[in-house]
Design goal:
This protein is mainly α. 77% of the residues lie in helices and 0% in strands. It is built from 13 helices and no strands. The radius of gyration is 19 Å and the shape is globular.
C-alpha cells in the first residue's frame, strides 16, 4: 500500500512538473522566440538523458542485469519519426503559448488524449464508447474559450495548439509502436536530438537568435529541458510500470489543471467565467476518454 501511494504521489509530482512547464515556456519567451527556446530546450534534454542513460547502464552492470537487445535500425527509424513529430508538436505549442498564454494552452493541448483513440478508430481499433460524448464536451469547451460575445472565431493561437494536439497524438501512437522495439531512454534521446536539429534552420530563417537572450532565458530552458522533458519522462516511464493504466492516465490528465493553477499563481493570469467553463468542459472530455472501459466488457485490440 505504501509503495502504491509513493508511486501515485511520484507520478502526480511529475504531472505537476509538466503543468508548471507551460508557465516556464511562457516566461522563456520574454527573452527568446519560440523556435530558439525549443532548440536549446531539446539539446538540454538530450544531454541530461545521455547522462541518465550512462548512469542506468552502470547500475545494470553492477547488478549484472542483462540488457534487452534492440535493433539499431528500429532506434534510428523510430527516433527520426518520433523526433520529427515531437519537433513539430513543441514548435506549434510554443507559438500557441505565445498567443494564448500558459493556462488555456494546457487545456487545448490536452485534447491530444481525445485524438489518440479517434485516430485509432480510423485504423479499426476499439475505442471508449463514450468518445462521442467526450467530443461534444471538447467542442463545447473550444466554443466557450473562443466565443467573444459577438461571434465564434478560432483564434490564431487555438489553431496552432490544435495542430500541436494532433502532432502529439501521432507522436504517442508512434512511441507506442517503437517503444517495444527500442530502449525507451535511447529512443527519447534520439527523439529530442532530432527535434532540436530540425528546428535549427527554421530558427535562423524566421527568428534572430542571440546568445545573450538565450542566457537570460536559461532557467526556463533548463526547467523545460531537464525537469519537464528529462525528469518528467523518467518518472512517467518508472511509475507507469507500477500503477494501473487507468489511474496513471487520470493522474496525467491533471497536467492541464496544474497549468492553469500555476499560470494564475505565477503569471497573474485571469480568466472569465466563460473561459473557465470552457476549460472545465475540455477537462471533462479528457477524463471521459480515460474511463475504464475494460469494466464495460469491451475488448481492446
Amino acid at each position: 500500500m505504501k509503495k502504491k501511494i509513493f508511486n501515485v504521489s511520484l507520478l502526480t509530482f511529475g504531472t505537476m512538473i509538466w503543468g508548471s512547464a507551460f508557465v516556464f515556456q511562457d516566461l522563456g519567451m520574454l527573452y527568446v522566440e519560440p523556435l530558439t527556446f525549443n532548440v536549446f530546450r531539446c539539446f538540454a534534454c538530450t544531454i541530461f538523458l545521455i547522462f541518465i542513460s550512462f548512469v542506468l547502464g552502470q547500475i545494470k552492470k553492477k547488478k549484472k542485469i542483462k540488457s534487452t537487445l534492440y535493433k539499431l535500425k528500429d532506434l534510428i527509424i523510430g527516433g527520426l519519426i518520433v523526433g520529427v513529430l515531437t519537433g513539430g508538436a513543441i514548435a506549434t505549442q510554443q507559438i500557441g503559448i505565445s498567443l494564448e498564454g500558459a493556462g488555456k494552452s494546457g487545456f487545448i493541448t490536452s485534447l491530444y488524449i481525445i485524438l489518440v483513440p479517434l485516430i485509432g478508430l480510423i485504423f479499426g481499433k476499439k475505442v471508449n464508447p463514450f468518445i462521442l460524448i467526450a467530443i461534444v464536451f471538447s467542442l463545447t469547451g473550444l466554443f466557450l474559450i473562443n466565443y467573444d460575445g459577438s461571434g465564434f472565431n478560432f483564434s490564431e493561437g487555438t489553431w496552432w495548439l490544435l495542430g500541436c494536439a494532433l502532432l502529439y497524438a501521432l507522436q504517442i501512437l508512434a512511441i507506442s509502436y517503437y517503444t517495444n522495439k527500442c530502449d525507451s531512454i535511447k529512443l527519447t534521446i534520439v527523439q529530442f536530438l532530432v527535434a532540436g536539429i530540425i528546428e535549427i534552420p527554421f530558427m535562423f530563417i524566421f527568428e534572430t537568435p542571440n546568445i545573450q537572450n538565450v542566457m537570460n532565458a536559461i532557467i526556463p530552458i533548463l526547467y523545460c529541458g531537464i525537469l519537464s522533458s528529462g525528469i518528467g519522462f523518467t518518472i512517467q516511464v518508472y511509475t507507469q510500470k507500477q500503477i494501473e493504466p487507468t489511474i496513471a492516465s487520470m493522474i496525467m490528465a491533471l497536467e492541464s489543471v496544474f497549468a492553469i493553477i500555476f499560470s494564475i499563481i505565477f503569471l497573474g493570469d485571469e480568466y472569465t467565467l466563460k473561459e473557465t467553463l470552457g476549460c472545465i468542459a475540455i477537462f471533462v472530455s479528457v477524463i471521459i476518454t480515460q474511463l475504464p472501459i475494460d469494466k464495460l466488457k469491451i475488448r481492446r485490440n
